[in-house]
């Protein structure tokens, strides 16, 4: 059982069940008549966005942990109640029934409600209701939610390399040579008179000349030209996240006769 003297340790502690961490304790609800701590709200879910009520009847403090006999699934599925600082008899009855806690028939639930501590709300009939106890001093603590934004790595797409064959026409110019006939005549001179008179004086004969020409020859060869690989790089960009956060406001409420300076 948690006592009033332990409230400063309970609020902000880590609630732990039989199967591990449940969340962070944000508020403790006191009995209006006895002032004893009866319920705690535990922030669960990603970034602690949900709050669940957990009974303190069988809870105890070990170091910085609030140990309760309820597992994660039980606390997660507890009735969702927007108490706004006070539990109604019907809401309390619903929670009792869910956690299997019996109520005393001689003290009807309708006569017992709860007030929160730990976030600046004032307990019934007390002054300076704060995290360290119901009547510590004449000041209260004002708290507010701060947005905690993180990142999570997810798969955004895939890419793959695929090689395929295409055919294209390539045009190149190459020089080719060929032989052509050219008729040359030379006069009879002392230098060639011997060749001119070699043979019969009058005769018939023919000379054959073979002409040659170059033709383009095409051959294809596969050669490596480049290597291609897939790689990734990390690019950081700015994204704006908007979320509603709650904060407490403290105002002064006095009678008309009270003088304010």
From TrEMBL:
Domain DUF2382 residue range list: 140-251
GO terms of biological process kind: photosynthesis, light reaction
Ranges of residues in domain PRC-barrel: 20-74
Source organism: Blastococcus mobilis
GO cellular component term of the entry, any: plasma membrane light-harvesting complex
Protein name: Conserved domain-containing protein
Top-level taxon of the source organism: Bacteria
């Amino acid at each position: 059982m948690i006592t009033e003297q332990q409230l400063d340790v309970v609020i902000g502690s880590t609630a732990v069940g039989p199967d591990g961490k449940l969340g962070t304790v944000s508020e403790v609800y006191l009995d209006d008549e006895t002032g004893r701590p009866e319920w705690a709200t535990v922030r669960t879910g990603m970034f602690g966005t949900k709050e669940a009520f957990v009974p303190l009847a069988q809870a105890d403090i070990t170091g910085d942990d609030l140990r309760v006999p309820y597992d994660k699934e039980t606390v997660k599925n507890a009735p969702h109640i927007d108490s706004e600082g006070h539990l109604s008899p019907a809401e309390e009855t619903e929670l009792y029934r869910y956690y299997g806690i019996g109520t005393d028939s001689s003290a009807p639930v309708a006569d017992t409600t709860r007030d929160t501590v730990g976030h600046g709300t004032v307990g019934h009939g007390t002054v300076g209701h704060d995290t360290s106890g119901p009547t510590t001093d004449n000041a209260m603590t004002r708290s507010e939610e701060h947005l905690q934004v993180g990142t999570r790595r997810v798969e955004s797409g895939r890419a793959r390399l695929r090689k395929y064959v295409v055919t294209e026409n390539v045009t190149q110019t190459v020089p080719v040579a060929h032989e052509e006939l050219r008729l040359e005549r030379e006069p009879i001179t002392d230098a060639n008179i011997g060749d001119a008179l070699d043979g019969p004086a009058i005769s018939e004969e023919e000379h054959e000349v073979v002409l040659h020409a170059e033709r383009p020859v095409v051959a294809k060869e596969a050669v490596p030209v480049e290597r291609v690989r897939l790689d990734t790089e990390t690019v950081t960009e700015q994204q704006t996240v908007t979320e509603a956060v709650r904060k407490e406001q403290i105002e002064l409420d006095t009678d008309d006769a009270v003088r304010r300076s």
